[in-house]
Amino acid sequence: MKNEIGVKFKKLFSLFGLIFAGVLLTVNFSTNSFAQDAGLTPGNFDGFETADWRNFRPNYIGSSTEFIRPRFEITNENPVSGKYSLRWTGGDLEHEWLMLSNAFYLARPFSATVLFRSDDSSNSWRAGFYLMQDYDFFSGVILNADGAAVQIDAEEWDTAISTHQSLEAGQVYRLTIALDQRNRFTATVTNHQSGAVLFEKSGISAIEPGAIALYVKTDGGSNSRLYFDDITVQSADYYIETGTWSRAPQPYFVALERLPDVTQEEGNWVGGHSVMKTEENEYLIWYRVRDNVQRGKGYGFARSSDGIQWEKYENNPVFVPDRKYDSNEKITVLKVDGMFRGWYTVEHEGLWITKHIQSRDGIHWENDVPVIDDMMCKDADVVYLDGKYFLYCIGPANTEISVYTSGNGLEWKLREVYEMGTHRHLAVYFERENSRFALYPSAGAKGVSYAASEDGIRFEPFTQTWAPPAVGLDDWVEAGITYLSFLRNEHGHIQTEDYLPVYYQARNTYDNNIPGWLYHGGERVVLAGKFEGLFMDIATRLMPDGTYQYGVFPFEIDRVKGLSVFADRESILRVNSWKENDRVLAEGVIESQQYTLIQFSAENLGVGDKFELLLSGETAAEGEVQSDGKLILRTIYPDDAESIFQIRRK
């Protein structure tokens, strides 16, 4: 029965259908009662048709101790497929690089393919396709003009070519790597045109998938051109766990790419941002722009109708600080009494200070004045509550966080200083449901920490809640997940910590011996979140330990507030309706195994009200609301079947 549930669960999460041989086959489950019509599920395909590498980043793995720059580019010159391909071009120096990504969902059983072509018949190049756990443990296939070899649980990137089946210059090959549920890793090289298998080898692997990576190595003086295109990933059913920070699935992972603000070169990024959901349900973001000429080029602006697809303002940057300042950093924007108010950081004569600007439309800014300039106050985040402003920033020392309050947002009083032990960026919100503030210091080799406060001033303890991955767009151990900006309202509030989407700056280092900040990484803004409880209209696994697993990333989906469901064996649930004041309290679909204990619990109901639980029209349990406003309905599931459930007043 467990396997049958697994098969049905797979159907539930097939919003985008199945991908075979690079072709998207749309599957319509509209007749299935569990059909997904909300949330985000993986696309798991990248053909570089956006003309950038938003889901990937370069990482140097060669032996040079000198600064060396990657030679990847997106080109429309003789692409492998579509209008664009990713191309590597050799140069005077010896190069060895990865182009890697953790934007794809990689649960086992997993397989990934990429199209590859070399325009060089010499042996001055090597290329490969890898599944990575981290930089010291990986499995994949490597090839050159003479043939291919598989590496399983390797710790060194280059290896001898074991199979001598020559690859023809100009011919397109399909590289496939796969890892099944029994931990068998398989690598295959296929002639893309004829379908002939040139190479295939498999073996047992202990790898835990973390990222996929394209591999290139070219000798000094090489003129090799290596092309990659149409990366396709298939994996097990998508799900995320409650209470766990999860990145949004690709193609929603990267919320704000660098183009057209900055080019793809290292040192160029967008971030240091502030996100707002307005009362009109419009999503706005202001962000810092930087390239490897200017550390701060001002602030860009973008808007969205759904928080996923963003349209950048055509005349960015919308605000550029006085050029007497050496740099500008993070910005925070609120909207109070119809006026947009921004607090941003600049460096002036070696001191980071906070300035204030205001605007009627969020685009045209004025009244630029310093507000905290007598001591260091860097990368401020601000909340407005009941006529008072709360500001949190780095300072007065580089390893400290300060708390300020103000009645007007201009004149500030220092209220508290916290020693962090290292440089930390920070984010804050006020949670309405529990009437408390939450502060999230990030970076500084400590990941993301969390502390709560009832008054917005006294926070403790700071406990670690989230750490950068071992490999990916955000794997920099010093600050991979940083510059968090939660999806807040105009005053910096959220409704509940049970629904906690966040936009953060994914930071990395290319490990290419950079000479300074000018060439540090190529960062972008990505979407993630942490969720608890039930959400409307999404298939949810009920786990025996009491937790849930969501079949979609539940971004901007209504919560089912006040209802919880437990099953002592793995089951599947979808809530279609939840109306606390109606005769029918809840209804939806549930699937489980015979003899499973199912418990529905509801809160905040009228004391003494009587309810019944129906499964496929038959009464399965009855109960009365107790003095604490809680209702509990328990039943033993009658058979191995899908049931329509309903909780209604008697």
Structure in words:
The chain has 650 residues and is an all-beta fold. The protein has three domains: 38-238, Sandwich (Jelly Rolls); 246-531, Tachylectin-2, Chain A (5 Propeller), CATH 2.115.10; 540-649, Sandwich (Immunoglobulin-like). It is 2% helix and 48% strand. It contains one helix and 49 strands. The strands form ten sheets. Strands 3, 5, 6, 8, 12, 13, 14 and 16 form an eight-stranded antiparallel sheet that branches. The chain has an eight-stranded antiparallel sheet with strand order 17-41-40-43-44-49-46-47, with no helix packed on it. A six-stranded antiparallel sheet has the order 4-7-15-9-10-11, with no helix packed on it. Strand 46 (610-615) and strand 47 form a beta hairpin. Mean pLDDT is 92; it is low at 1-36.
Number of domains: 3
* Radius of gyration based on Cα positions: 27 Å
What is the correct CATH architecture of the largest domain?
A: 5 Propeller
CATH 4th-level superfamily of the largest domain = Glycosyl hydrolase domain, family 43
Distance linking N and C termini: 34 Å
User: What is the residue-averaged pLDDT?
Assistant: 92
Characterize the biggest β-sheet.
Answer: 8 strands, antiparallel
Q: What assembly state would you assign to the polypeptide chains in this entry?
A: single chain
What is the SS-derived class? mainly beta
- In the CATH hierarchy, the third-tier topology of the largest domain is known as Tachylectin-2, Chain A
- Tally of extended strands? 49
CATH class of the largest domain: Mainly Beta
The helix count comes to: 1
What fraction, in percent, of the residue positions are helical? under 10%
Strand content: over 45%
- Unreliably modeled segments: 1-36
Shape: flat
